[in-house]
Amino acid sequence: MLFNLFKSKPKLKELIPKGFVDIHSHILAGIDDGPTKIQESLNLINEMKKIGFQKIIGTPHTYNGLYDNTNETIKNSFNNLNAKLNNDITVSYASEYLLDISVIEKAKKEKLLTIKDNYVLIEMSFISMPINFKEMIFELKKLGYIPVLAHPERYRFLFKKLNVIEEIKKMGCYFQLNLLSATGYYGNDISAFCDELLKNNLIDFTGSDIHNIHQVNCFSKKIKIKELNKLEEALENNQYFI
């Protein structure tokens, strides 16, 4: 899908390819800052389905001291939701892990919940990069995982530090862009950084990071970024997780 540069920018929902696989969402109820009740989850999924989502991976936070989720709590939340779902959309589960030493310790004791095979979704604090971030990436790799860093464009401390991002990528870390970042939802500065990352071929996958119905509705907003073709490529890459 190629859009003429002289025409109005498309709405975000118009870019969602048929059969889209969302690898980052907060649709499971009652275990993080997503929905509190199953009916809210069902409403979210129904609206996401209308946009063109065919598979949604629920990735609730595992955040030591805030969202102390376990494999069991996430599985139970998924099972409760799955019992109410229709068969016209696929929903599965994993987790979005705040990367700290507790995750490394967890990974040594039990299997982390992955978005597919050994691909594990991780995030950082929005305040600063952990001093030992690269060491923890190395440890995850040594344990057999392929780290996928969620929303690198939202870490303002990485602005103007493409060399750091490139170094992390060379370590074998993939990058997942939040789709709403392309609309200015998180701020125009983040949209600009989106463009920079896409232009430099640093984005591998995309995700909705949807927590609530307001964010679903924001898929009707127009795209602000310039690198539409690169964004479309990243959207198509998600088919790996089908």
Short account of what is shown:
By secondary structure, the protein is of the alpha/beta class.
Secondary structure blueprint with pairings:
Blueprint: E1 20-25, H1 38-51, E2 53-58, E3 61-62, H2 71-82, E4 90-93, E5 96-98, H3 101-109, E6 119-123, H4 133-142, E7 146-150, H5 162-170, E8 174-178, H6 188-199, E9 205-207, H7 213-217, H8 228-237
Parallel strand pairs: 1-2, 2-4, 3-5, 5-6, 6-7, 7-8, 8-9
Q: In the CATH classification, which architecture applies? A: Alpha-Beta Barrel
| SSE sequence, one letter per element | EHEEHEEHEHEHEHEHH
What's the CATH superfamily, by name?
Metal-dependent hydrolases
**What's the number of helices?**
8
Give the strand content.
15-25%
The Cα radius of gyration reads 17 Å
Helix content: 25-40%
CATH topology: TIM Barrel
Low-pLDDT segments:
none
What's the CATH class, please? Alpha Beta
The total beta strand count reads 9
Estimate nothing, just give the exact number of structural domains.
1
